[in-house]
């Protein structure tokens, strides 16, 4: 087997983050150097606790979890902003039966603890100690931690091989009139990353909307009969139920999509992203209707701008599921 890819995950665990974590932690081709947590789907105390629960469920206690930012860089500072009204998503603030992301994952309380150092310090220390181009960052929540690390010490930039992010949207179901949740939560953080010069692959909603799993696939995962596989099956079923509660009747809505795990899959199998375009991409930071929109270079004004992003517009759902199933099944076999 070729050398394992070194990755650092940055998560707001969350139901689809949990599936992404299971896949990354159990995949033989990945070396997860650490996991950073951030506030987003739920409060950072809960995203951190949920992440620890998944690490323990996967039997990987040696992988450090580093608690990160509770709030975005700037988007919640104006009290009238939508972000300020909605972030952090307060514990107990939503119906846990129908919420796509619950405060606590359906796992036993963890016996593990987060590391002492913060996510930002971990990112800087780990990247500075690495060789150039050695580490891939996989953010699947608001990108506050990575933006903070870049601003705190730009010497980390050449160490980053690429950033494969889940976020952004162009044609599919934005979180508001215009933006996808991870970008909407911290637009300034994403723009800092997009201007950093680090190669970015944006696994957008346009792509992840093709990564929906159905009840039959959840049943196949359950049949693997390991704790991580049972967790993934339960979370797929929960997301389908939550998505239906939001009016998605055919299980193809964004709530049914397993967004974050597709980003992990794309690190190893970029061919899973079946339609991509290298383009300029920037985030609208005006505080109007399009705040947080990912604006692709689609007219002459942007054509001269650096093509700073590989934007994914579609994905192969069959390849995605086969990969996820294969990772969980192989891990079960290895015991
Ligand atoms: O828009 C989808 C993204 O928002 C996913 O990362 C999901 O976990 C939520 O964070
Ligand atoms: Ca997420």
Please explain how this structure is put together.
The chain has a single domain (5-333), classed as Ribonucleoside hydrolase-like (Inosine-uridine Nucleoside N-ribohydrolase, Chain A, Alpha-Beta Complex). Helix content is 38%, strand content 15%. The protein has helices at residues 15-26, 44-57, 82-86, 119-128, 144-152, 181-185, 187-194, 205-208, 215-224, 227-245, 259-268, 300-303, 317-334, and strands spanning 5-11, 30-37, 65-67, 135-139, 160-166, 200-203, 275-279, 281-283, 294-296, 309-314. The chain has an eight-stranded mixed β-sheet with strand order 3-2-1-4-5-6-10-7, with helices on both faces. The protein has a two-stranded antiparallel ribbon with strand order 8-9. Helix 9 (215-224) packs parallel to helix 13 (317-334). Calcium ion is lined by residues 12, 14, 16-17, 41, 140-141, 260. Alpha-D-ribofuranose is lined by residues 12, 14, 16-17, 40-41, 140-141, 166, 180-182, 205, 259-260.
Task: Please write out the topology.
Elements: E1 5-11, H1 15-26, E2 30-37, H2 44-57, E3 65-67, H3 82-86, H4 119-128, E4 135-139, H5 144-152, E5 160-166, H6 181-185, H7 187-194, E6 200-203, H8 205-208, H9 215-224, H10 227-245, H11 259-268, E7 275-279, E8 281-283, E9 294-296, H12 300-303, E10 309-314, H13 317-334
Parallel strand pairs: 1-2, 1-4, 2-3, 4-5, 5-6, 6-10
Antiparallel strand pairs: 7-10, 8-9
Helix pairs in contact: 1-2, 1-10, 1-11, 4-5, 5-7, 9-10, 9-13
The structure holds alpha-D-ribofuranose and calcium ion.
Calcium ion (CA) binds next to α1.
